[in-house]
Design brief:
- Strand 3 and strand 4 form a beta hairpin.
- This protein has 19 helices and 4 strands.
- Strands 1-2-4-3 form a 4-stranded mixed β-sheet.
- The two termini are about 35 Å apart.
- By secondary structure, the chain is mainly α.
- The chain binds zinc ion (ZN).
- Zinc ion binds next to helix 12 and helix 15.
Length: about 450
């Protein structure tokens, strides 16, 4: 996603991201790797040592690979700060030099129809933001991704994705902003309560349409054909009461080598998708455990729980927004040429206030997502019964997520559990189910030997 969309449509993407479950796996080898010759606790073999098993898995990642992944992920902490600061600075400039006021006046000269004025303002606003933050976007999304060997895209196709994302931001943003400002103008003092409600409704709308109308703009989705992979997945779906008749694959390799899968949409648009990197790079047990995780999101109703939990965060955020806007307008409103809270020229101020709020509440939002991800991991372990496959997938995810952070670091920055946390969960589960051990998975090399 383009940065412009990211920083302004933050609200909605928090949720989309929450649901874009990122777990991994893959297989062409697709043979059943469950065997029974693993050491079994209680039969004279030494009791299974969870910690030693975790360390053994972590050691599968070569030190150079781990150093690269750590540097990439830790750099991301700083990027969050630069994103935040650059957004605030751009927004402040729009207010301070009355650019926002002129954009509003421009919209008012074109039409007297207020909803259309809001839409025109939005168009000019988001394009301005896109241009102003473009250098950082290029660094963050293109240069840096290539530097760490995580991107497969040349500049042309990458730029094409940015422009498409901008288009999505223009259309969806207008669908959100126009009714929101209409509501604010009619409701007066209590606008923020209804503003929060409209936001939650919009997020649900976005989550509903994303798999059908948004995701296909960036990747090609097709029904997974290979019965050796599809059949076990659908069998697991039936066993878990999931009404899926198809599994989708998409060409994530267009963008990167990252392994991932997700369950998106809900109600009529529910879709289980795995990316082609997962299919190419993982074994069947790894794919199964990944799918078990995604099914966990579905069975545990994470989409609805996420709406409720993020809804609480958003209501509080809008209360803060109401306070922040009134506070700033009473001091600087005149010099900025912003009339009141119902004036669309106030938008940069709203972005500043919400950016501060979401920046400060990052650990809260990450914890909401991360706890659901850990639940889905547990569900996946119980559904797929592939603890070693799970550990391998967790290692592959370590290509772009730090494997072994400190506890505070994980609490603050991780929207998914760290590799260590996930492998520990898998090994703890395996200790109680020694019959599921897979020596093939344990041995399987995951990273090219240097
Ligand atoms: Zn997930």
């Amino acid at each position: 996603m383009v940065r412009v969309t990211k920083c302004f449509l933050w609200l909605f993407f928090v949720f989309a991201v929450a649901m874009a479950a990122t777990t991994a796996a893959r297989a062409q080898s697709s043979s059943n790797t469950q065997t029974s010759n693993a050491p079994v606790a209680g039969q004279g073999a030494p009791a299974f040592d969870v910690n030693a098993a975790v360390e053994a898995y972590l050691a599968k990642m070569p030190p150079a690979e781990r150093a690269r992944s750590n540097a990439y992920f830790e750099g991301g902490y700083w990027l969050q700060l630069w994103d935040f600061l650059s957004t605030v600075v751009v927004m402040w400039l729009l207010l301070r030099f009355r650019v926002s006021m002129r954009m509003r006046d421009f919209a008012e000269r074109i039409t007297r129809f207020r909803p259309l004025q809001t839409a025109i303002y939005w168009l000019v606003f988001i394009v301005t933001l896109f241009v102003a933050t473009f250098p950082l976007t290029v660094y963050e999304g293109y240069i840096r991704e290539h530097k760490y060997g995580l991107s497969n895209q040349t500049f042309g196709p990458w730029m094409r994705d940015q422009v498409v994302a901008l288009g999505v931001g223009i259309v969806l943003g207008a669908i959100f902003i126009v009714p929101l400002f209409g509501l604010v103008r009619r409701l007066g003092r209590n606008w923020w309560v209804w503003g929060a409600v409209v936001s939650v409704v919009f997020i649900a709308f976005f989550a509903l349409i994303a798999p059908v109308y948004i995701s296909p703009l960036f990747n090609k989705y097709s029904k997974l054909q290979d019965p050796s992979i599809k059949d076990p997945i659908l069998s697991m779906a039936r066993a878990n009461g999931i009404p899926a008749t198809d599994v989708y694959e998409f060409d994530a390799s267009r963008q990167s080598n990252r392994v991932s899968a997700n369950v998106s949409g809900f109600a009529g648009t529910l879709q289980i998708s795995l990316n082609d990197n997962l299919l190419k790079r993982c074994t069947l047990p790894e794919i199964e455990t990944t799918m078990g995780h995604e099914m966990g999101h579905y069975v545990l109703n994470h989409i609805y729980k996420g709406l409720v939990m993020n809804g609480v965060v958003i209501v509080i955020g809008f209360a803060f927004l109401n306070w922040g806007i009134n506070f700033a307008l009473s001091r600087w409103g005149k010099s900025w040429g912003s009339r009141d809270v119902g004036d669309v020229a106030v938008l940069p101020l709203a972005v500043i206030v919400l950016s501060i709020y979401f920046f400060v509440t990052t650990p809260v939002n990450n914890t909401i997502t991360r706890s659901m991800e850990l639940e889905a991991d547990m569900y996946g372990l119980n559904a797929a019964r592939q603890p070693d496959g799970e550990a391998n997938v967790d290692l592959l995810l370590g290509e772009y997520r730090k494997m072994d952070p400190g506890p505070i670091e994980e609490l603050v920055f991780f929207d998914h559990p760290s590799g260590r946390t996930r492998i520990t969960a898998a090994m703890r589960w395996k200790a109680e189910h020694p019959e599921t051990a897979s020596p093939e998975e344990m041995k399987r090399p995951l990273f090219p030997t240097p």
